[in-house]
Every structure is written in structure tokens, then in C-alpha cells.
Amino acid sequence: MSDQGRRRLGVLVGVALAGGLLPGVTLGAETPDVILSVLAATLVTVVLTQLVHIGPSGRVPVPALAVLGLAGFVQDALIWWLLSWLGPKISELRVEGVATILLAALITRATVLLLSQLSPAVETAGD
Fold first, then answer.
1. pLDDT, tens digit, 9 for 90 and up, residues 30-41
2. Where in the chain are the domains?
């Protein structure tokens, strides 16, 4: 799987986990509403993270990962803040409270970073 595919999968898993675990995130009452809410949130997050890519491409040292993770966390928090406003307009998604936004951003960024670090090590021709 490519780096871009792993990032997209990380966003999907992160949005689904945040929606399922956090009491301040409401995805909808019926199964189709929940699916639509997760897909809408994932689509918005994927598009915005692809426009402004913050994150590693493959394995990186821990200090660089911490800096990229912090910058990505801020980006994801801003995206979840946008979703708290945009969500009710496009689906049944509701995000309530700053703490929920920050926790959702943390979950989303952690899954993206985890999946990016699970990539196979790249061997160079000189090794």
C-alpha cells in the first residue's frame, strides 16, 4: 500500500474511532446516517489533509515524528473544528465541545502516524 493509501486508511480509521469512542461526537441514530456521517467526515478530512500534507512519508526518527505529529495534530484539530460547524449541514454529524475536538484530532493523527510507521523500511541502492 502506498503512503497516500495508508494516510487515507488512517484517516478513515481515526474518524470512525473518534466517532465511536467519544461521547461528544454524534454520528446519527440509524445505520445509514452513521455511515454517511463517517464518510462525510472522512472525505472532508482526506481532502484537506491532501491539500496541506503534514506528516511523514515512511519511517522517520522519533524527534521528526514528534514535530510532524504536533503539526498534524493542530491541522486535525482545525479540521474537526470545521466539521463541528459543517457536519450538521451535510450529514447527522455533531461534534460538541473543544475537548471533544482535541481528542478527536489526537485519535485521528495517532492512527495516521501509526499506519505511516507500519510501512516497510525502504532499502536504498547503496546499502
1. 888 888 888 888
2. 3-117
Q: What 3 state SS string does the chain have?
A: CCHHHHHHHHHHHHHHHHHHHCCCEECCCCHHHHHHHHHHHHHHHHHHHHHCCCCCCCCCCHHHHHHHHHHHHHHHHHHHHHHHHHHHHHCCCEECCHHHHHHHHHHHHHHHHHHHHCCCCCCCCCC
Of residues 1 and 93, more confidently modeled: 93
**Average pLDDT of the residues in 86-100:** 88
Q: How confident is the model at residue 57 (pLDDT cuts 50, 70, 90)?
A: low
- Residue 121, exposed/middle/buried by CB under 10 A (0-12, 13-18, 19+)? exposed
Grid coordinates representing 44 are: 472532508
pTM of the model: 0.82
Interacting residues of 52 by C-beta distance below 8 A, sequence separation 6+: 75
